[in-house]
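pasting for ref
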Amino acid sequence: MPLYEYQCSACGQRFEELVSVGSPPPACPSCACAEVTRILSSVCGRTSDKGAEHQFAPGPFPTSMGCGSGGGGGFS
């Protein structure tokens, strides 16, 4: 099961949750709202570009997982 990071659309709470592939997104643990957005955590990596050695990926990267999105889990 992958560990995903979410942000609640109602209260803004960020949380992590272990979610089975194909399962619907979890409700917010703070306010129980079902409209949450899956976000990708920022990552740091090395590149071969000498000028970009200390650059970080700009995050978070929202992926809509709210009501009516179809829950496809793809990146938009």
